[in-house]
Amino acid sequence: MNRQVMVVTAAYGRDKVAELGGQRALLPVIAQSGADGVEIRRELFTASELQQLTELASAINSHNLVAFYSVPEGLFDSQGQINANLTQRFSEAEQLNARLIKFSLGHYQPGSDLSALRIFLSSQQVQLVVENDQTADCGILPPMAAFFRDVTAQQLPIKMTFDMANWHWVNQSPQQAIEQLAHYVGYIHVKAATYTNNSWQAVALDQSDGSWSGLMQQLPANAPRGIEFPLEGDDLLAVTRHYVDIVRKD
Predict the structure, then answer these.
(1) Which GO terms describe its molecular function (predicted)?
(2) What angle do CA 37, 145, 131 make, to 5 degrees?
(3) Strand 37-41 relative to strand 66-76: parallel, antiparallel, unpaired?
(4) Long-range contacts of 114-118 (CB under 8 A, 24+ apart)
């Protein structure tokens, strides 16, 4: 199987992205690494870059890359209402020619009527995915499982981005999460983490205990895989290519 591998620009770190002049500067590296696409992060844009999304889309296309778009916002606000920026964020995704737009869950209230969201999504071309984040009240298993049960029952075309390591930050078991959520997964954030200095930290796969590989085998084989662990070193192309190869084959 020729698995689709995406590189998340945030993997290079906010400082490196800024040093290079923005996410667009990483496109040659990502393309030459053999990756299939790039996950563009909204939080890494400057105000002026947000006004140049169509130009970025053209650059992504010129490198023969697929675009995914990550929004650092919950799908539901603190009152349990649909994110007021939803229409604007989908417009940004369309300008990027993104195939997928990613939100975290936010403060979803289990059992909510999702008909308004279903109607909105019926007119959209971009796939909506919801990720487990590192927030102790929203990124844990019970609300995530409740949301996807409701999504299924109410027949919404929403899939899950399964971040393999974020569960550690909220004291949850990745294995238990897989057992309950794997069949909803449409995108995988490949990430390893280690507990040092009283906190969890993302680490490169070669520096981990290897448990990420076993988790990967239990997730849908046809789901795109996004590299979100740190990509660091003097030769970013070599580092990126190394991990693209690992993530694609594992």
Answers:
(1) isomerase activity
(2) 25
(3) parallel
(4) 114/150, 114/151, 114/154, 114/156, 115/154, 116/82, 117/82, 117/156, 118/154, 118/155, 118/156
**Distance in angstroms (rounded) separating the CA atoms of residues 64 and 62:** 5
CA angle 190, 191, 194 (to 5 degrees): 160
Q: Which two tokens stand for residue 180?
A: 């309950």
* 96-113 pLDDT tens trace: 999 999 999 999 999 999
For 211-249, the pLDDT digits (tens) are 999 999 999 999 999 999 999 999 999 999 999 999 998
Whole-structure pTM value: 0.97
